[in-house]
């Protein structure tokens, strides 16, 4: 087989066979296919698309390019959850202990944040002592004993994706649905779950700005998941404004604790119920979504979910006493209000720009090498659809530098106050096939 022939085939809109796709991924991972040929193939895929069968074969080849985690020694149906990224997206911190507390085993590998999006690992590391590295054996033992562990992705998980993603990044081939779908699903399949709940975000704070693209991506991932013998469903959710009220690592840990105490922001709570009830049903711990929702509500009101979070922190070496005194995590030197310049209704909170404001404070990374300041971030007091009076604080800036002029300016430019506006729908679609 020669790579040049396969590039030509794809360029001319023909289908690649499973053998051909396996050859490409195996040889590219080994380094025997050079980046320039792979770049040409990626661009051909970008323009000519792929069938579900091709995407499935690509996904499986990438999933098997490195370690495939075997979770079969964990009892029960293992359910993973994956979000395509957002701003202030605190759901995993809440969902992992919440669904574990009703008996669903959660063996989750999460990622770090980059640019305007935050990452669950960084948020967990805002908890003093919390370890995101466990050996495979420890990971499986903890999930068997306690139903939940959230750790970093092992180094050898889907190495083909790591290499391809870096190449796509510099060849303008990131925003291709077959390439995004195979990238995400290859990592989920290598991570070993039996069932996967996907949160495909859409809006300014998401990869897919356009809802039509988000729906297509969701349908594609659900179909290829099924072809790969996994149970998969997707929720298409709104990320035009940040989720919840807190954006920033310690602030989001506090928000997660408050949510697990039953005092969370409405949209975050609803998101956790929507995704959590799907996870509970996929894990066959409930027959219907309504029943699952009742179980989750009971776990919140009884304190069972909060106790599970405490247990999870303790199991992973963290200081679990912060659950009883979360304010201890809020150590930023300055808390600065952002007063509204006029009265009206908030009509827009541009999620990605607000994410950048939090990043500029130190809550996120501009480049992979940047250090994070866990204490800083933003706490929104108004969301889209809320009334505000002139002079009233729109949000609080938590900062370790006194001068936040540029952050304030960025925020003012991306918060619109108008005459009338309403809360956007949180969930646009639920996709099961
Ligand atoms: N997230 C991924 O993991 N891969 C993509 O291609 C896009 C988003
Ligand atoms: Ca949040």
Characterise this structure.
The chain has 433 residues and is α/β, with parallel strands linked by helices. It folds into 3 domains: 3-48, Transferase, Pyrimidine Nucleoside Phosphorylase, Chain A, domain 3 (Up-down Bundle); 79-325, Pyrimidine Nucleoside Phosphorylase, Chain A, domain 2 (3-Layer(aba) Sandwich); 330-418, Alpha-Beta Complex (Aldehyde Oxidoreductase, domain 3). The chain is built from 16 helices and 13 strands. The chain has helices at residues 3-11, 18-30, 35-48, 52-63, 91-100, 120-125, 136-146, 159-169, 177-190, 211-227, 249-260, 266-282, 289-302, 304-315, 351-361, 405-413, and strands at 79-83, 106-110, 148-152, 195-202, 231-238, 246-247, 334-339, 344-349, 377-380, 387-388, 393-399, 415-418, 427-431. It has a 4-stranded mixed beta sheet with strand order 1-4-5-13, sandwiched between helices. Strands 6-9-11-7 form a 4-stranded antiparallel beta sheet, sandwiched between helices. α1 (3-11) packs parallel to α3, α2 (18-30) runs parallel beside α4 and α12 (266-282) packs across α13. The chain is globular. The structure holds uracil and calcium ion. Uracil is lined by residues 84, 165, 179-180, 183-184, 207.
């Amino acid at each position: 087989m020669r790579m040049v022939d396969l590039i030509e085939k794809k360029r001319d809109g023909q289908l690649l066979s499973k053998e051909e796709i396996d050859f490409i991924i195996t040889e590219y991972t080994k380094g025997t296919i050079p980046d320039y040929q792979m770049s040409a193939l990626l661009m051909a895929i970008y323009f000519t698309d792929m069938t579900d069968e091709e995407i499935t074969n690509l996904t499986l080849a990438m999933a098997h390019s490195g370690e495939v985690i075997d979770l079969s020694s964990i009892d029960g149906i293992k359910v993973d959850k994956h979000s395509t990224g957002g701003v202030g997206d605190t759901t995993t911190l809440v969902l992992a202990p919440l669904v574990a507390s009703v008996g669903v085993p959660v063996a989750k590998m999460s990622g770090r944040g980059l640019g305007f999006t935050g990452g669950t690992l960084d948020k967990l590391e805002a908890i003093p002592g919390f370890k995101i590295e466990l050996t495979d054996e420890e990971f499986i033992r903890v999930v068997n004993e306690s139903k939940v562990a959230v750790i970093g992705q092992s180094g050898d998980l889907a190495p083909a994706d790591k290499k391809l993603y870096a190449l796509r990044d510099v060849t303008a081939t990131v925003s291709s649905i077959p390439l995004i779908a195979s990238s995400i699903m290859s990592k989920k399949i290598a991570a070993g779950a039996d069932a996967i709940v996907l949160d495909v975000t859409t809006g300014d704070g998401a990869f897919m700005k356009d809802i039509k693209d988000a729906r297509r991506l969701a349908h594609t991932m659900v179909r290829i998941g099924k072809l790969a013998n996994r149970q998969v469903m997707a929720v298409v959710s709104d990320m035009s404004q940040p989720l919840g009220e807190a954006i920033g690592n310690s602030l989001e840990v506090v928000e997660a604790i408050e949510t697990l105490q039953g005092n969370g922001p409405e949209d975050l709570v609803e998101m956790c119920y929507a995704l959590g009830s799907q996870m509970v049903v996929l894990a066959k711990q409930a027959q219907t979504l309504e029943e699952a929702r009742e179980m989750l509500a009971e776990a919140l009101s009884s304190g069972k979910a909060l106790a599970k979070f405490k247990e999870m922190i303790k199991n992973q070496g963290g200081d679990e006493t912060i659950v009883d005194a979360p304010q201890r995590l809020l150590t930023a030197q300055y808390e600065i209000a952002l007063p509204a310049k006029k009265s009206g209704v908030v009509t827009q909170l541009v999620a990605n720009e607000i994410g950048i404001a939090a990043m500029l404070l130190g809550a996120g990374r501009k480049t992979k090498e940047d250090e994070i300041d866990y204490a800083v971030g933003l706490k929104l007091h108004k969301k889209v659809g809320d009334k505000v009076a002139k002079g009233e604080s729109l949000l609080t800036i938590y900062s370790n530098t006194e001068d936040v002029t540029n952050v304030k300016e960025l925020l003012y430019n991306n918060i619109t106050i108008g005459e009338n506006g309403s809360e956007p729908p949180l969930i646009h679609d639920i996709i099961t096939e």
